[in-house]
């Protein structure tokens, strides 16, 4: 019996398929994109006033609450008015007396003039009578000024708000002696509506600011943890600060809800213009190689190829492109480091594609 043993040949090697690289993608789209400059601004009141005493006296009443909103002309403090009322009465009495003396002197001067014209009085006697009348008349005018001063001092014993606004901390209390002619305020009033925000932009942005200033630049501010507020630019400085290399601007905001508080620091966005149909992709899709910026473009067969792009600017985590892609192109936003030209990809859920 003959056994035939078939020779064992080498089995053919199976071709191994390269695994697909999992990536996230976004679609290049056209969108309205603003051109914005960012800065940090400081909120400041358009109007503020330090309320001080114009006369010296003891505070007898505080007629408002700390932090209250007051109107212009509202009484804030009452001072002891008794000394000023007495001074007013005294000035009124002096004026009444001197008016009577002036009237008598005037009548005497009229009689003296008649007698002088009849050659009964001498020139010296007529001059004396006329001088006495004029002196008494001048004294009356001085008394009237003193009476007006006394009336004002009595009025100043009631200290009123010079502007409408919100009061700050109360710096004096009932029973305190306040003095005129000092720089120590009794309270500060700040007008909260509208309000200014001052901020700066770098000197390299000055040509853009000057170019779009006439078209009406918009400014948006956002306090930390707060909602944004829209305003308008009301001031652009005419010179750049040589020390900081920045240009000062001011925005005005209605601040109807009082969210912006004087002295507060806020984030500022100055919108110079808006590109209505800008081509945008997420900025994380753009890589930089030896030849400049590029993206990985996903082909219809799920392979990728590097595509050079020209980035105009980055705004709100979105890259605005001037060339390199077309609307609807797919670009890789996550997983680029594991890719090489021609690699096949497995698309995971897409990243947001709109700004």
Rg from C-alpha positions? 42 Å
Helix percent band: 10-25%
Low-confidence stretches: 1-13
CATH topology of the largest domain: Elongation Factor Tu (Ef-tu), domain 3
What are the salient characteristics of this protein?
3 helices, single chain, OB fold (Dihydrolipoamide Acetyltransferase, E2P), six-stranded antiparallel β-barrel, 4 domains, Elongation Factor Tu (Ef-tu), domain 3, alpha+beta, 22 strands, elongated, conserved putative lor/sdh protein from methanococcus maripaludis s2 fold, 355 residues, disordered N terminus, 38% strand
Care to give the gist of this entry?
By secondary structure, the chain is an alpha+beta fold. It is built from three helices and 22 strands.
Blueprint of the fold:
Layout: E1 21-27, E2 29-45, E3 48-51, E4 57-62, E5 69-70, E6 75-79, H1 82-117, H2 123-156, E7 158-160, E8 165-167, E9 177-178, E10 187-190, E11 195-202, H3 206-212, E12 218-222, E13 229-236, E14 246-253, E15 265-282, E16 287-289, E17 292-298, E18 304-308, E19 310-315, E20 318-323, E21 330-334, E22 345-347
Parallel strand pairs: 1-22
Antiparallel strand pairs: 1-21, 2-11, 2-15, 3-10, 4-6, 4-9, 5-8, 6-7, 8-10, 11-14, 12-13, 12-15, 13-14, 15-20, 16-17, 17-18, 17-21, 19-20
Helix pairs in contact: 1-2
């Amino acid at each position: 019996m003959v056994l035939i043993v078939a020779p064992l040949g080498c089995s053919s090697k199976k071709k191994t398929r390269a695994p697909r690289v999992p990536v996230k993608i976004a679609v290049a789209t056209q969108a309205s994109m603003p051109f914005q400059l960012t800065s940090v601004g400081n909120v400041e009141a358009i109007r503020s006033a330090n309320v001080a005493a114009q006369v010296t006296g003891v505070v007898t009443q505080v007629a408002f609450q700390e932090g209250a909103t007051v109107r212009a002309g509202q009484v804030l403090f009452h001072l002891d008015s008794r000394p000023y009322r007495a001074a007013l009465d005294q000035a009124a009495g002096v004026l009444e007396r001197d008016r009577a003396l002036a009237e008598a002197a005037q009548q005497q001067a009229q009689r003296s003039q008649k007698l002088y014209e009849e050659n009964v009085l001498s020139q010296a006697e007529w001059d004396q009578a006329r001088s006495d009348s004029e002196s008494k008349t001048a004294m009356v005018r001085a008394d009237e000024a003193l009476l007006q001063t006394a009336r004002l001092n009595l009025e100043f014993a009631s200290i009123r708000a010079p502007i409408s606004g919100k009061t700050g901390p109360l710096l004096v209390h009932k029973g305190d002696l306040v003095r005129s002619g000092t720089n120590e305020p009794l309270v500060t009033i700040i007008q909260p509506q509208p309000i200014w925000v001052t901020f700066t932009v770098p000197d390299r942005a000055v040509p853009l600011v000057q170019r779009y200033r006439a078209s009406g630049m918009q400014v948006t501010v956002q306090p930390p943890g707060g909602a944004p507020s829209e305003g308008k630019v009301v001031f652009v400085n005419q010179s750049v600060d040589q020390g900081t290399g920045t240009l000062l601007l001011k925005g005005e905001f209605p601040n109807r809800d009082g969210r912006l508080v004087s002295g507060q620091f806020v984030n500022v966005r100055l919108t110079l213009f808006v590109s209505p149909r800008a081509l945008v992709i997420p900025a994380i899709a753009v890589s930089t190689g030896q030849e400049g910026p590029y993206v990985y473009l996903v082909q219809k067969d799920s392979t990728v190829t590097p595509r050079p792009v020209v980035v105009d600017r980055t705004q709100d985590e979105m890259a605005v492109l001037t060339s390199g892609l077309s609307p609807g192109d797919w670009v890789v936003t996550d997983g680029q480091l594991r890719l090489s030209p021609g690699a096949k990809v497995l698309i995971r859920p897409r990243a947001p594609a709109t700004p």
